[in-house]
Write a structure and sequence with these properties.
The complex is a heterodimer of chains A (118) and B (375).
Chain A lengths: L4 E4 L4 E8 L5 H4 E2 L4 E2 L2 E2 L4 E4 L8 H10 L6 E4 L4 H10 L3 E3 L5 E6 L5 E3 L2
Parallel strand pairs in A: 2-6, 6-7, 7-8
Antiparallel strand pairs in A: 1-8, 2-9, 3-4, 4-5, 9-10
Chain B lengths: L8 H12 L4 E3 L2 E4 L4 H17 L7 E4 L14 H17 L21 E3 L2 H11 L8 H10 L1 E3 L13 E5 L2 E2 L1 H15 L4 E4 L2 E2 L2 H13 L7 E2 L6 H7 L4 E5 L16 E9 L1 H14 L6 E5 L1 H6 L1 H8 L3 E5 L14 E4 L2 H11 L2 E4 L2 H9 L1
Helix pairs in contact in B: 1-5, 2-3, 4-7, 6-7
Classes of the chains: A alpha/beta (118), B alpha/beta (375).
Chain lengths: 118, 375
Amino acid sequence: MPTLKPVVRGSGAVRAEVVKLGPISFLGDLDPESGVISGVRISGKILAVPYVRGSTVGPYVLWHAAARGNAPVAIVARSVDLMLITASALAGVPLFQGELPEGCIEIDLSTGDYERCR
Amino acid sequence: MSYDRVVGVAETVRRIADAVSGGEVVEIETAHVSGVSYLTLGEYGVRFIEELAASGAKVKVFTTSNPSGVDISSFLEVSREFAAGQRRVIDAFLKMGISPISTCAPYELLRVKPGTVHAWAESNAITYINTFRDAWSDKNPGPLALLSAVAGFVPKTDMYTSEGRRPTARVHAKIAADPLKAGLIGAYIGESLGSGIPYISDLTLNGEEARREFAAALSTYSSIIFAVLEGVTPNWRRYLAAADFRDRITISEEDLSKYLKDLDNPDVIYLGCPHLDLETLLRISKVIFERGRTKRPVYISTSPGVYGALRELVDRLRGYNVHVFAGSCLVVSPYTRRFRVIATDSMKSVYYIPRLHGVKTIPCETTKCIDYAYA
């Protein structure tokens, strides 16, 4: 089974669609009231990005999205930094390092093991 | 909106530690929070801070805060909505026990000692205490510094270990620097190395403001937050002995000229980013009183401490078209947007003001900046 490196672990497993985007800034790109980033709704999805850039207040925006029930179920990034880790921990969104294919996957939020939805 | 996760502050810091320091945390003596201005914090940041305060969270250690978007005497006029948003931030800080000192130079107030551990945000302040006090802080994002202040500990990242503080680059810079030049050197070293810990020899930083400008520029133009200055940084000999040099650079005065742009016509002069120290403010005042009323307005930001100590002087300077204000700065105040071109001796302002406000900046030596005011 392929696996991702867990950075901020969650618990249980989820089955969700992967939304692949370019580098994003939570502040400015994510509307926490709707869970939409550049026209794409990420609420309940797995957000896959190369990295997160921009303002250090970004964690507050992801927190707000989570409080509104609009956060992704997990974030997967090629490279992670302290800002993204802080955002994930603050918002309670599990964070993994690695890359994912598009489509639906089922992922174990504590180990990072995943497989395509059957 | 209720957010019960906010209660688990210590747990959140531990989760971050799991990701960045193998779960290890270290107790802190002080914290300094950034992300204070309503301009940079925004509505979501304010709501988080309000929720945290409402949950009963209190800071465990002495905690200071960065400049806000409104200065303490309300000299920089802002909209009613902005002022109300800023008030909510300050009220929540007070509720949590955070000192609303509103300065980016908390090191002026806190004489942090070598080897002590702190969770600071605000890159110039972190770099200043690492470099000039050998007091230890990593570059914590604003929200992490806040959570750490409440938890009383911070993830034990490399900057909180002797091993992680070993110099990685040897830098020769036989230069005597005033505040602008200190900023140019900081920017140049930052851009040349990008990351790591420079060990710098032969550099002379003339005065407190030069030290502040150096720290601010180095950390604005790179991810570097600690430099060892030969003969200056406490324990510099120990750092030299432990150094693991992978890069070597030599800087001359000519290298710094690339930052000096063609001169535009400034409509205002701005000094005091980071906040101007008492001694420099006295020196500048003397020049102003000798030369008379300026033709172009001069804005100077300082800490509330310096402002309070020099209140009479500040009032007198206003009659000379020189406006000293405290608790805010032109980087984080929306007031800045009424200007067209700002002449400043701060390389940090040169970087951020165009990006945050769309206003042009011209770097100038402090004395040249003052000459502009009379031109």
